[in-house]
User: Fold this.
Amino acid sequence: MDGMSRRLSPAILALTAAVMLAAPAAAQSRREMQMMADIRMLQEQTQQMQQQLQAALDAISGQLKAISTRVDDQAGATRKSFADQKLAVDQFGTDLRVVRERIDESNVRITSLSQEVEALRLAIPSMTAPAVPADPNAPPVSDVQPPSTPAPPITMSPGISPQRLFNTALADFTAGQWTLCIEGFNTYLRGFSRTDAADDAQWYIGDCYYSDGKFTEAIDAYHRVITGYPKGDRVPDAYYKLGLALNSQRQPDRAREAWETLVKQFPDSDLARLAKQKLDGMPRGKAPGR
Assistant:
């Protein structure tokens, strides 16, 4: 019996050792299987997350495209609105310019009509004056001899148009008929001294005298423009030509004063620049050449 026990002990020991060695291997296999299962689960979760992420990206891309389309539409509408507004502004500017031109034309017509009314007003006393009875002792008209004295200066006929009177005097100025020009503009001023062209008429009188070499009379006429029509547009011209006339009369100090006044009161005018050139080239006490 003891011998059998001794023979069985090694076998039992070997079996026990085999069982002990097999147990860790089985446990390791279970761990590997669990790990594989966990890996498959993570892969499935990762795949699901990728699908969800791709779906989210597709949705965002669609929203971005829709937003881009709306932005483009809005930008196009804004550009069209700006273009329409610019067109409307341009059209308004054109209409405003047309209105201004019509207003200017109306003002010209009103001025012309005012002058015509003034001419008629002056003509009415002459037209309604009582007729002088004929002298029964007067000789027949055919026996009256024409006077030998020269014709009187030009006078304004009853009802004559102011514009026609002005244009006639201006034509004499252009033709160099200085005496006729002066008479014509003086006649105009006697009847229409309050019109817009009155300062022009007075200035032309001065220019006629200046062109005729009558500088003293020209100086007086230019002074009348400055003092009689201080708000007229001929004042700068009068100051400049006044300086030239004074300089021609060898009065450089007064000429300088006239040009300095022109530069001071009308610094942005072309005549002020010409006056400054005269002043720059004008030594003290010496008159510049005409």
